[in-house]
Amino acid sequence: MRVHERGVLKESEYYFFTPSNLAKSLFFYLICTGKFFCDNNYDVKRAKHNSFLLMYIIKGQGTVCYNDKVYPAKENDLVIINCYYPHQYYTKTGWTTLWFHYDGNTSKELFDLVYDRLGCVIPLSNHLVIQKYLNIILENARLSSSLAEPLVSCYIQRILSELLLLSSDFILPIKEEGNPILDAITFIETNYKKQLDLKMIASYVNISPFHFARTFKKNTGYSPYEYVTKTRINQAKILLKKTDLRIKEIAIESGFSSVSNFIINFRNNVGVTPSEFKNTPF
């Protein structure tokens, strides 16, 4: 489909799709996709657009404004925007982009994970897998106005998953020495039976509590408190399955302050009580 928009050159193309109710309830779904050749007049500014945007810059450079920040964007960068919030992107020199708007499923949650770790302009460094799926989505759109929605959902999810894996913060460097977050994890996993708190763990790795809490969350996806609780629950699971200890004894051995605290935390995190977990066959 030819494009008639300011700054978009005539060789550009885009395609629109209307998702089924099934796709809206279960999948990531495609709203539109295209390939734009733009001159220096291209400027998109919106207060809101009901979708999420992935835009790969094949050639050229421009600027992205999002969340009160301004990001330069250049060739081989990927732009990701939650368009439900005010945003703008433009080029003063011209660019060529491959893009799609999508929504559905856990779009916001995955966007937030990617944005928190990488921002909204992400250098791809010739990441061939992401480029491959961007092209597959466009090729499918060219061939048919009726897409296989479960398959397209898989393509979108694969791209988002690859973006998460680009972040060195998402997967900890297991063998790296002198990493304070790894030191903190080791400390927690060694001392989970003690009454640990944020101040104690931060002091162990010689970082201020505020900075430590932010850095720990960024690297692991858990707050320090959540990680301590997770460690204790994992230990409790082992004791529930491998020993005949009573619930009260398991609570103490796992580092919980009381039986009630143990049961509440276990149920909130696992979805069943400790007794139900113990009696469930695997």
What does this structure look like?
The protein has about 280 residues and is α+β, with helices and mostly antiparallel strands. It has 2 domains: about 15-165, Sandwich (Jelly Rolls); about 180-280, Homeodomain-like (Arc Repressor Mutant, subunit A), CATH 1.10.10. It has 11 helices and 9 strands. The protein has helices spanning about 20-25, 105-120, 130-145, 150-165, 180-190, 200-205, 210-220, 225-240, 245-255, 260-270, 275-280; strands at about 15, 30-40, 45, 50-65, 70-75, 75-80, 85-90, 95-105, 120-125. Strands 1, 2, 3, 4, 5, 6, 7, 8 and 9 form a 9-stranded antiparallel beta sheet that branches. β4 (about 50-65) and β5 (about 70-75) form a beta hairpin. The termini are far apart. About 30% of the residues are buried. Residues about 170-175 have low confidence and may be disordered.
Using the coordinates above, name the CATH class of the largest domain: Mainly Beta
Secondary structural class: alpha+beta
End-to-end separation: 54 Å
CATH architecture of the largest domain: Sandwich
Key terms:
282 residues; nine-stranded antiparallel β-sheet; Arc Repressor Mutant, subunit A; elongated; Jelly Rolls; 11 helices; 2 domains; alpha+beta
